[in-house]
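2024-03-11 09:14:02 DEBUG pipeline.ingest accepted 1 chain
2024-03-11 09:14:02 DEBUG pipeline.ingest length=379
2024-03-11 09:14:03 DEBUG pipeline.predict start
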Amino acid sequence: MTSSALWRTRYQAAMAEMTKYTRYMANGGLLFTVYFVVLYGLVVYGRFLDQLDPSFPGNLVMGSLFILLAFYRSTRTFLTEADQVFLLPSLPHLAGYMKRIRLYNAFYGMIRAVIPFLAVAVLYVRTEETSPIGLFILFAALSMIGAAANLSKLEGVGHRIVLLYATGAGILVMLGMGAFSIVVTSLLLLTLHLKKQDQLPLMDWIALEQESRDRFYRIANWFVDVPRLSTTYKRRRLLSVLVEKIGFDRNRTFDYLYMKQFIRSTDGIGLIVRLTLIGAVFMWLGKDNEWLVVLAVPAFSGLTSFQLAPFTRAIDSHLLTRLLPFGNATASKRKVLRITSFLQVLVLTAAGYLISGFLTVVAGAILALVVAEYYARKK
């Protein structure tokens, strides 16, 4: 298989997969909430800019963006596990494929810098004296950081090299010498070019692709059920100790199993933590509007109950679970959902009251408990 044919087939397959899950995510209820939070955040940011003091240190914010952008690296190679066998005979002839992968990841890294730059640039132009050319140079330097972060992972170059150059460029911006930052970032790209690998590191690039796909599937799993996601579990020793307090009783077997599953899986406690944090941010953004704060509690609690549906799937699909007559699985599942919903509502209500001071948030909590009970009874 030639490099161009391999690139074309793998790229098209990967884009088709991403498009499919992106479409599912766009139709999800949780994404609507995220849209709403982002839009409201933009309104709050606009008000902040309108009241911005010209003495605000915009150069520090722009310089910090250079450093922050270097921390995130994500690369795609579009290789699969089976390629460690099938591509072995073609390895010496895949230079063209490597070139296309490098261009794709560099371009993706540069695109990733656009939105953060635009968000900070509107603040920067209000506090610093600059010109359109100066802004373009800053964007070019920042986009090089994004490209270099991705390429460094691809070439197996240490992340500290990218962080070092990005910190140097960021400090120049903070000192008001932003025009020179592009010199630093150009040197970084030159360093990566000199260290590029001549032959395709097959195993390393397969691992990078698997890591990148898992990251995308984990994000997609926040919104839709992703069957291809490799399930990950964390021990969470402190919380697991609490489950051991459940007494040994065959009728409480599912209490133990479901609570353990809930604590250790990302579909359980991880989902609740994420939605509770988003709900707290939402209430903070709308703290001046009583109804937004009050309705945020049942809205995010209801979303959590809805999304918690698959957290027992790993246990329910096990053959022994179906065969052995251990207790009442449905009652245990409802018990776990009621406990977790109550704790989440308690946290959201306390956060809502502390942020806004509205006692009416209690009414939202009562409504949230009614919604949670509705979902629990559907199990």
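2024-03-11 09:14:41 DEBUG pipeline.report The two ends are 51 Å apart (CA to CA).
2024-03-11 09:14:41 DEBUG pipeline.predict end
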